[in-house]
Write a structure and sequence with these properties.
The protein has 315 residues and is of the alpha/beta class. It has 12 helices and 9 strands. The structure holds zinc ion.
């Protein structure tokens, strides 16, 4: 399949999800228990803006930020924004950028909105982007925000890597001493937010993933290719990974480079100069290094989730 054809298919990603969402909304004109627990886009943005001082309702309702058609455990839409290929330019690569996997890392969500502001003005078509500003809305939007989702699962320990149980889950017991902040879930990809991310990676087939966290004040990197040495004032310090993390799942298992941006503070956003400088360094790194030579492998999906669930409860 030619690259252009593939891009065309990929660019219809949001359209497909939107169609599913619209059918859902039509269905939900009928009152009933099925619909009672879903929150709409505007209300979601109202809650996000109420929680994050540096994200306004207008920022969140901006053009192009849409519901993916997928929802958190508590029925909050998982928002995405796509910057599709431009008509006259073949993109160099597809890039997925994800914030807010951990609900108490406020700056990791706010900075994604700031970077979207920059890209809104400067999208030149060199990359085909999808942004997920907030993977874990339930963790953020609780009265007391927390790292884990509504079922107490750490989404960055719940990715469906091989050896999830043997290494990832066991590590939670032995090393994390069952600390609930790092609970990897009952089985891999048990959570709708994780399943959404896996499906997004499978459909979009990014050549690179940027994942934003805080407050470790460093730049981490998993997978093939050459890491950036700096991003603004952040310096590369590779932490390694283990089954259940996005770095392991995408970087090691599927050969997609994962750059993890660990901001220096969860509560304080970097200065606007630093936010721009990080963005410039990120784009420069992408231009020079992505796509890498190897092709991402086929990625597991829906059927695999059922198999994972069966294996877990079978033991
Ligand atoms: Zn984090």
């Amino acid at each position: 399949m030619g690259k252009r054809r593939q891009n065309h298919i990929v660019s219809s990603y949001v359209t497909t999800f939107l169609a599913a969402w619209c059918s859902f909304m039509v269905f939900c004109l009928w009152p009933g228990p099925v619909c009672a627990d879903k929150v709409d886009h505007e209300e979601t943005c109202r809650r996000i803006a109420g929680k994050l001082a540096s994200v306004s309702l207008k920022d969140c309702l901006a053009d192009g930020i849409v519901s993916s058609g997928r929802y958190s455990v508590l029925g909050i839409p998982l928002l995405i924004k796509e910057y599709p290929p431009l008509e006259l330019r073949e993109p160099q690569a597809r890039v997925l950028l994800v914030g807010g996997a951990h609900g108490d890392e406020y700056a990791s969500i706010s900075i994604v909105f700031k970077w979207m502001d920059i890209l809104n003005v400067h999208h030149s078509g060199i990359f085909h982007w999808i942004f997920v500003p907030l993977l874990n809305p339930d963790g953020l939007l609780r009265e007391q925000s927390r790292r884990t989702n509504a079922r107490g699962v750490d989404l960055n320990r719940n990715m469906p890597s091989p050896l999830w149980r043997e290494i990832g889950y066991e590590r939670w017991i032995d090393v994390a001493e069952r600390n609930p902040r790092y609970y990897p879930g009952p089985y891999p990809m048990s959570e709708p937010e994780t399943e959404f991310l896996v499906e997004l990676i499978r459909h979009f087939k990014p050549h690179a993933i940027v994942s934003v966290h805080s407050p470790l004040n460093l730049l981490d990197y998993d997978g093939p290719g050459i890491p950036a040495s700096t991003l603004g004032s952040l310096r590369l310090r590779r932490l390694g990974n283990f089954p259940g993390t996005l770095g392991n799942y995408a970087g090691i298992e599927h050969g997609i480079p994962v750059m993890t941006v660990e901001l220096s503070s969860s509560g304080r956003l970097p200065t606007s100069g630093e936010i721009s400088s990080m963005w410039r360094d990120l784009v420069r790194w992408l231009i020079d290094n992505v796509p890498i030579e190897t092709e991402p492998e086929e990625i597991m999906v829906e059927e695999d989730r059922k198999e994972l669930e069966r294996r877990f409860f079978g033991k």
